[in-house]
């Protein structure tokens, strides 16, 4: 068995850094996702990494996605790529992590979440948690206080995600207690998946993937599927 998570959100919120922090908890070298700190390449396509969780005797598969509202890529292109990323988590992701940065929360973050809801359906929230990155930038006593003082949209989002949320600084050099935070993140992820009885998101996902696949098929000959049907008979 394995646990599958997909990291999504606006570009530059720290998705790849979060994925790398989770995966490198036991092995510093296990940082598969290109991040803005690396010279040129940022995530443009689906990326997959995994770590074996000894104490659970299971693998944790982490899928990183390209960010929405990237100035160089149109959102519908990114959405198509994100759907492919979700397909990489077949038979379905156990958990989506919605990443928001405490450094800067903008209207585009809200729009990103709306876009994901309209792509994957409201069901997606049952399988989602909110992760705040850049905890080192937090000017409040704790994340709870920050949420209480924040816009209604954020409170609603966390409520819709069943209250599941966490804050983390993924930069080792800036974190007060890096190891503890990453461990907390890992524990939260496994806890959510287990308390969901290992259920995973599929319903809307296949509908969406279907439409995108159909678009690709439309460009091909229509006789091909007919011939295949006959062969199956
Ligand atoms: N200070 C601070 N910077 C962060 C944190 N997480 C990510 N960053 C920085 O934010 C930038 C974007 O990170 P990246 O992981 O590439 O974002 P992505 O586009 O969402 O994948 C990089 O320069 C990271 O070093 C954090 O927790 N604290
Ligand atoms: Mg990235």
Structural topology:
Elements: E1 2-9, H1 15-23, E2 47-53, E3 58-64, H2 75-88, E4 95-101, H3 107-120, E5 128-133, H4 143-148, H5 152-160, E6 165-167, H6 178-195, H7 203-218, H8 223-232
Parallel strand pairs: 1-3, 1-4, 4-5, 5-6
Antiparallel strand pairs: 2-3
Magnesium ion binds at residues 15-16, 35, 42-43, 64, 67.
Features:
single chain, Rossmann fold, binds magnesium ion, P-loop_NTPase, binds guanosine-5'-diphosphate, GIMA/IAN/Toc, 41% helix, GTP binding, GTP-binding, alpha/beta, 6 strands, 233 residues
In short:
By secondary structure, the protein is of the alpha/beta class. It has helices at residues 15-23, 75-88, 107-120, 143-148, 152-160, 178-195, 203-218, 223-232; strands spanning 2-9, 47-53, 58-64, 95-101, 128-133, 165-167. The protein has 8 helices and 6 strands.
Structural commentary:
The structure is a single chain. The chain is of the alpha/beta class and 233 residues long. The chain has a single domain, classed as Rossmann fold (3-Layer(aba) Sandwich), CATH 3.40.50.300. It has eight helices and six strands. A six-stranded mixed beta sheet has the order 2-3-1-4-5-6, sandwiched between helices. Helix 2 packs across helix 7. The model has no long low-confidence stretch (mean pLDDT 87). InterPro entries: G_AIG1, GIMA/IAN/Toc, P-loop_NTPase. This is AIG1-type G domain-containing protein. Belongs to the TRAFAC class TrmE-Era-EngA-EngB-Septin-like GTPase superfamily. AIG1/Toc34/Toc159-like paraseptin GTPase family. IAN subfamily. Pfam families: AIG1.
């Amino acid at each position: 068995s394995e646990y599958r998570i997909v990291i999504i959100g606006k570009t530059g919120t720290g998705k790849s850094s979060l994925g790398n922090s989770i995966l490198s908890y036991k092995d510093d070298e296990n940082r598969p996702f290109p991040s803005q700190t690396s010279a040129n390449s940022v995530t443009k396509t689906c990326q997959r990494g995994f770590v074996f969780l000894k104490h659970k005797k299971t693998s944790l598969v982490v899928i990183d996605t390209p960010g929405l509202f990237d100035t160089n890529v149109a959102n519908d292109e990114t959405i198509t790529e994100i759907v492919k990323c979700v397909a990489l988590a077949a038979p379905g992701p156990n958990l989506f992590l919605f990443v928001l940065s405490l450094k800067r929360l903008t209207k585009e973050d809200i729009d990103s979440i709306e876009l994901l809801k309209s792509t994957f359906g409201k069901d997606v929230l049952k399988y989602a948690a909110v992760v705040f990155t850049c905890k080192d930038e937090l000017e409040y006593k704790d994340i709870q206080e920050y949420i209480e003082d924040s816009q209604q949209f954020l409170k609603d989002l966390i409520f819709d995600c069943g209250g599941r949320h966490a804050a983390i600084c993924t930069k080792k050099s800036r974190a007060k207690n890096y190891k503890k935070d990453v461990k907390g993140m890992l524990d939260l992820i496994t806890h959510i998946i287990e308390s969901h009885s290992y259920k995973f998101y599929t319903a809307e996902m296949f509908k969406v993937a279907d439409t995108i696949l159909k678009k690709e098929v439309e460009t091909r000959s229509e006789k091909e599927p007919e011939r295949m049907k006959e062969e199956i008979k």
